[in-house]
């Protein structure tokens, strides 16, 4: 399971995306038998819509490798923001969307 950093705003988005993309690639290669990539967002404290852009890019990469994608333990405000933008169904499993 990958972990989001504590802060993902426009300022940190590029670095967060680079870090997660590299980790995703390593995870996809080392765990080829697993069909789901998960990101733990429980440590996320400061964020804006850039965090959604980062997560959507991770979802796109996972999909390109034939893997499912899910964000777990999303802070309530992140889940609400994802719902507002209509991307909650792409990022969060139904049981985490209610959070």
List the helices and strands and how they pair.
Layout: E1 2-3, E2 7-8, H1 10-30, E3 36-40, E4 46-47, H2 49-64, E5 68-72, H3 76-85, H4 88-91, H5 94-97
Parallel strand pairs: 1-3, 2-4, 3-5
Domains counted in the coordinates: how many? 1
- Number of H- or I-type helical stretches: 5
What characterizes the major β-sheet? Answer: 3 strands, parallel
Name the strands of the widest sheet in spatial order: 1-3-5
What is the CATH architecture descriptor? 2-Layer Sandwich
The structural class is: alpha/beta
Hey, roughly how much beta strand do the residues contain?
15-25%
> How far is the first residue's CA from the last residue's CA?
19 Å
Assign the CATH superfamily.
Answer: STAS domain
Q: State the assembly state of the protein chains.
A: single chain
Please name the CATH topology. Answer: Transcription Regulator spoIIAA
Core attributes:
STAS domain-containing protein, 5 strands, single chain, Transcription Regulator spoIIAA, about 100 residues, STAS_dom_sf, alpha/beta
């Amino acid at each position: 399971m990958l972990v989001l950093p504590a802060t993902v705003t426009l300022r940190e988005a590029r670095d967060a995306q680079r870090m997660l993309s590299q980790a995703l690639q390593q995870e996809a290669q080392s765990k080829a038998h697993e069909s789901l990539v998960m990101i733990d967002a429980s440590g996320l404290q400061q964020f804006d819509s850039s965090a959604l852009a980062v997560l959507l890019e991770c979802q796109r990469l996972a999909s390109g490798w034939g893997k499912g994608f899910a964000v777990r333990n999303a802070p309530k405000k992140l889940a609400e923001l994802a719902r507002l933008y209509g991307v909650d169904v792409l990022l969060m499993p139904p049981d985490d969307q209610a959070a």
